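>> Question from a student workshop board

For tomorrow's exercise we were told to take the sequence and the ligand below, predict the bound structure, and bring the output to class. My setup keeps failing. Could a helper post the expected result so I can at least see what it should look like? The ligand is S-adenosylmethionine.
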Amino acid sequence: MPKLILVPTPIGNLEDITLRAIRILEETELIFAEDTRVTKKLLNHLNIQKTVYPFHAHNEHKALSVALDRIKTNTTTVLVSDAGTPGISDPGFLLVRACLEEGIDIECLPGPVALIPALVASGFPCDKFVFEGFLPHKKGRQTRLKIIAEETRTVVLYESPHRLVKCLGQIEEFMGGERKVCVAREISKMFEEYKRGTAAEVKAYYEAHPPKGEIVIVIEGKHE
Ligand code: SAM
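>> Workshop helper replied:
Here is what the output should look like for this input. Compare the format with yours to find the bug.
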């Protein structure tokens, strides 16, 4: 019975790969990766020699039938993305759905993902939360922000560093400058940083200190 296993990979610190992830990468017959160069670097670091096939975001639809044919002729296939958990703001969902439609087993190992450490360290309630991924850049962005403004659960967003100040400005505009936020930057890396405060305070900080690296924004839910 063929099986697809989604294997999360480190989001910064290479020590965050699990023992099970390493064993599965060693044992699997086939690896699909978002970017084969990125995955080969990780495999080299782990001393694993394997052929890695591309499974890109921009050809996810086209790549499906080729991938499915390969998955069916192997016992286990692994899908990895560049960092974190495949399918979370990364390619993966379409392949999982297509495999399930074909009766192929799916497993996803627990492992690195950026949204969970950001949420838990934010200090906002994490018993219930909403993950919005990346907001649309233009069309539909304001609509999402208006919906998020009314959300009573904690909201988690992914954002690029060059759009962080703009995004915090929009949180101020749509939710008020007093809405509390936490910006988690470079989680598990050398320059890891958490900035907590009101949207206005955190925006002022990043206007004065233009951010680099990878960013998660956590927004406190609207008080009921
Ligand atoms: N699949 C990944 C995951 O499981 O979190 C997410 C991939 S998405 C293409 C990349 C985004 O995730 C970044 O722009 C950033 O918002 C967030 N991210 C990834 N690594 C991060 C890190 N070390 N610190 C903060 N945010 C990170």
